Amino acid sequence: MFIDSHCHLDFPDLSSNLDEVLGKMRENQVSHALCISVNLEDFPRVRALAEAHPNLFASVGVHPDYENLTEPQAAHLASLADHPKVIAIGETGLDYFRLKGDLEWQRERFRQHIRAARQCGKPLIVHTRAAAEDTLRIMAEEGADKVGGVMHCFTESWDVAQRAIEMNFYISFSGIVTFKNAVALKDVATRIELGKALIETDSPYLAPVPHRGKTNQPAFVRYVAEEIATLRGIAVHEVAEATSTNFFNLFKAAKI
């Protein structure tokens, strides 16, 4: 069985035909999925999805791309995470690719999420793009290693992966690993200890080959696992078993 460790089932592309999406998950042996919060305004619908389906879980957090809103505070995030189906804080982190200028607000938001994770004892889901050094520095300064988490949709170097792993973080591979030009990422997928890997779709985005360019969905996470298995020269069931075990080892609040 496969687990999609990061998807956005509340987004219109997927929520409009949720029954079909969940059916495709079953057909493709995807047993569970983690539905990710990107802002607090929409968090109730993410939580509601997890409450309505025993094989879905939720996170709570504010994505670094969201500007001009009331900044989330650690205590409030921790209180929202006090729910049996909310198993993580995030997605949070830094993104210097989409936004420019003075991004100190983004760094402070990241710090608040790490503090919330430490307060509630639940792991972090970290987004980093064109900001690896600052991301790792803030993680170290705020003691993110005390709770650990996952570097979601990883696209960085092997060095960055190793440094994150040293802070008790897992590395999550998305459909990008199936792209022909993702040479450095394929190298990371080959070299990483399988016990530190997760798989995800980030759906509805980043559909893997052979569905690249289409709307992504949790059922397609199997293609991520198949690519990793091919790169490593092992059976796909080994990737499925390892990443599913890793999911429940990391997200201890998740109930099978």
Defining key terms:
single chain; about 260 residues; alpha/beta; TIM Barrel; 8-stranded parallel β-sheet; 10 helices
Helix content: 40-55%
List how many beta strands DSSP finds. 8
User: How are the strands of the largest sheet arranged?
Assistant: 1-2-3-4-5-6-7-8
Query: What is the overall silhouette?
Result: globular
CATH topology grouping: TIM Barrel
| Order of SSEs | EHHEHEHEHEHEHEHEHH
Can you give the mean pLDDT?
Answer: 97
Major sheet size, sense and barrel closure: 8 strands, parallel
So how many helices?
Answer: 10
Report the β-strand fraction as a percent range.
15-25%
Q: Looking at this structure, what is the CATH superfamily?
A: Metal-dependent hydrolases
> Nearest-angstrom radius of gyration?
17 Å
Uncertain parts: none
Given helix and strand content, the structural type is alpha/beta
Q: Total domains, how many?
A: 1
Architecture per CATH nomenclature, i.e. the level-2 architecture: Alpha-Beta Barrel
Classified by CATH, the class is Alpha Beta
Distance between the termini: 12 Å
SSE layout and pairing:
Blueprint: E1 2-7, H1 12-15, H2 18-27, E2 30-35, H3 43-52, E3 56-60, H4 74-80, E4 86-95, H5 104-120, E5 124-129, H6 132-141, E6 149-151, H7 158-166, E7 169-173, H8 183-191, E8 197-199, H9 221-232, H10 236-250
Parallel strand pairs: 1-2, 2-3, 3-4, 4-5, 5-6, 6-7, 7-8
Please tell me about this protein's structure.
- The chain is α/β, with parallel strands linked by helices and 256 residues long.
- It has a single domain, classed as Alpha-Beta Barrel (TIM Barrel), CATH 3.20.20.140.
- The chain contains ten helices and eight strands.
- The chain has an eight-stranded parallel β-sheet.
- Helix 8 links the parallel strand 7 and strand 8.
- The radius of gyration is 17 Å and the shape is globular.
- The mean pLDDT is 97.
